[in-house]
């Protein structure tokens, strides 16, 4: 069975947090904002003011002042006390992950307001669960996607440049992974067959990013929003988000999840940086040498990591074999890996990337 899922509405543009918050009215007139103290200090007063103008009352809970169990209890108490009718997740990956968790537990709709384009998590009905040390634990899957995604490209423009680049790497992985799944009639994150739409979105994401990333970086460096910048933001958040959820995850993210789940490996780097190396690993393991060379040169030019050493992964031969076996086992955790890939091919790829 082919299955496709998505948010109900996506809005993107300059100053969207000022001009477009009225669109949230259909979700209710009282909201619980899930964010962190840094974002609250940077944007909180403006968001609260603009929500008030849109006739929406608001409360806030900070994810960095509560661990997840306490956060959920406190959020549920706030929802009950104030009669909140929906959730806003304002910030980066942690706010989005925990905001979705709270919305699911409270059975409320959620709007996602990302403050960077470093991740494609905004559109999905998936949260990533990490332990208290930041190690990957598992994916949590919810019944439905966020209702509204609201992206303010003025806010994204002022985020650190490396965040746009991290989202670029994650977006590049979307097509590399979705293509392998499509070619072998694999399964997406819902355990279903991907649609033509999913593969098309993933491919468009890849094409836009390859074409526009350099001009988008130049625009951000001088503080200007141009078409290339808008395109890359949309690709990082919308095209990649729909592409990965509906097209599926594969070896590149399997690599990320294993090295982030192994405390002893002491991996360094953002999600996007780790996935960048995962992309090269997947291309080598699938014996796509020409594509590996093309992407490796591009990543080097953009100052993305291209080796295990750059992620602080200095592995012995035994660890190469252990890591290869663990990556293959992510097949059992929602990552579809080509049937042509085995431990030996992953080991050879790891050695080349060392």
Helix run count: 13
Largest beta sheet, briefly? 6 strands, parallel
Task: Flag low-confidence runs.
Answer: none
Distance between the termini: 40 Å
Helix percentage: 40-55%
Largest sheet strand order: 1-8-5-4-2-3
Name of the CATH class of the largest domain: Mainly Alpha
GO molecular function: glycerol dehydrogenase (NAD+) activity; metal ion binding
Protein name: Glycerol dehydrogenase
Binding site for glycerol: 120, 170, 253, 271
Enzyme class: oxidoreductase
Brief characterization of the structure:
Pathway: Polyol metabolism; glycerol fermentation; glycerone phosphate from glycerol (oxidative route): step 1/2. Keywords: Metal-binding, NAD, Oxidoreductase, Zinc. By secondary structure, this protein is of the alpha/beta class.
Structure, described:
- By secondary structure, the chain is α/β, with parallel strands linked by helices.
- It has 2 domains: 9-158, 3-Layer(aba) Sandwich (Rossmann fold), CATH 3.40.50.1970; 161-353, Dehydroquinate synthase-like - alpha domain (Dehydroquinate synthase-like, alpha domain), CATH 1.20.1090.10.
- 53% of the residues lie in helices and 12% in strands.
- It is built from 13 helices and 8 strands.
- It has helices at 16-19, 37-53, 68-82, 93-106, 153-157, 161-183, 196-221, 227-247, 251-261, 271-285, 289-301, 317-329, 343-353, and strands at 9-13, 30-35, 57-62, 86-91, 110-114, 126-130, 136-141, 148-152.
- Strands 1-8-5-4-2-3 form a 6-stranded parallel β-sheet, with helices on both faces. Strands 6-7 form a two-stranded antiparallel ribbon.
- Strand 2 (30-35), helix 2 (37-53) and strand 3 form a beta-alpha-beta unit.
- The termini are far apart.
- The mean pLDDT is 95.
């Amino acid at each position: 069975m082919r299955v496709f899922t998505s948010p109900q509405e996506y809005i993107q543009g300059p100053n969207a947090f000022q001009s477009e918050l009225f669109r949230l009215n259909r979700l209710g007139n009282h909201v619980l904002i899930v964010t962190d103290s840094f974002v609250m200090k940077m944007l909180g007063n403006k968001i609260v003011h603009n929500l008030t103008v849109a006739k929406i009352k608001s409360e806030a809970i900070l994810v960095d002042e509560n661990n997840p169990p306490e956060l959920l209890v406190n959020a549920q108490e706030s929802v009950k006390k104030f009669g909140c009718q929906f959730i806003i997740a304002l910030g980066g990956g942690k706010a989005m992950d925990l905001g979705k968790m709270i919305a699911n537990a409270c059975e409320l709709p959620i709007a996602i307001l990302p403050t960077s384009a470093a991740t494609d998590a905004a559109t999905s009905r998936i949260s990533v669960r990490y332990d208290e040390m930041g190690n990957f634990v598992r994916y949590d899957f919810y019944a439905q996607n966020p209702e509204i995604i609201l992206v303010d490209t003025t806010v994204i423009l002022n985020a650190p440049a490396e965040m746009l680049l991290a989202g670029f790497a994650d977006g590049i992985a979307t097509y590399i992974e979705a293509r392998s799944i499509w070619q072998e009639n694999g399964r997406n994150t819902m355990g279903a067959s991907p649609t033509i739409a999913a593969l098309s979105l993933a491919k468009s994401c890849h094409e836009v990013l390859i074409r526009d990333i350099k001009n988008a970086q130049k625009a951000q460096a001088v503080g200007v929003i141009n078409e290339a910048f808008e395109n890359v933001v949309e690709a990082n958040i919308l095209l990649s988000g729909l592409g990965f959820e509906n097209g599926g995850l594969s070896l590149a993210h399997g690599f990320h999840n294993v090295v982030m789940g192994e405390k002893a490996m002491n991996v360094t780097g953002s999600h996007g940086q780790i996935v960048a190396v995962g992309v090269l690993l997947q291309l080598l393991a699938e014996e796509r040498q020409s594509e590996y060379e093309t992407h490796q040169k591009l990543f080097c030019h953009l100052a993305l990591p291209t080796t295990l050493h750059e992620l602080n992964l200095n592995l012995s031969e035994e660890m190469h074999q252990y890591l290869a076996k663990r990556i293959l086992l992510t097949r059992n955790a929602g990552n579809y890996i080509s049937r042509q890939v085995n431990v030996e091919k992953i080991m050879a790829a790891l050695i080349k990337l060392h």
